[in-house]
Amino acid sequence: TDANELEIDSDDDPWTDLFVPARRALNDAHVPESGRFMIVGADVEDWLLTQDESFRRADAQGQDALDLLHNAILGRKAGFTVVGGVDTIDPGVAYALHPSAFAYVTGAPANPRGAKASAAASYKGVAMRVLYDYDADHLTDRSVLSTFAGFQSVEDEREQEPDHGVEGNRA
Q1: How far is CA 76 from CA 4, 25, 39, 81, in A?
Q2: Residues 15-60: pLDDT tens digits?
């Protein structure tokens, strides 16, 4: 297994067997403490809800906790916002992450010269172009929204141990 992967049994304790090692791994990687998330698959979510009282009792914590549950946020633990209900990942996995590990970039396409009118704008980091023209095939005005978008994980370069050896030959 990968050095950052944990094997967890259903009898394990979520605090000592999931949250503490995940926190340590992010601390060792110098990941900022604020804004950390843990995304959990369905089986891990079930395990947390049955093994950890703090997640089971969220319904008794008032309206704020109910709002969190409606947004698939199970709660906060060890500095992580724990998000369940994620059906796009393997049910048996959990990912500890930080938003700074991902780059999302958008760009508005150039305004075409043949369009009746067009404009580009950006709002909350999303750039978009709107194009207004006449659709002769359907005898109607139309507006078209378009953007270019890219998403990539960002990994810091790992420092390598300095080479203290001497290379070359001495005469």
Answers
A1: 21, 18, 12, 5
A2: 888 888 899 989 988 899 999 999 998 888 888 888 777 665 555 5
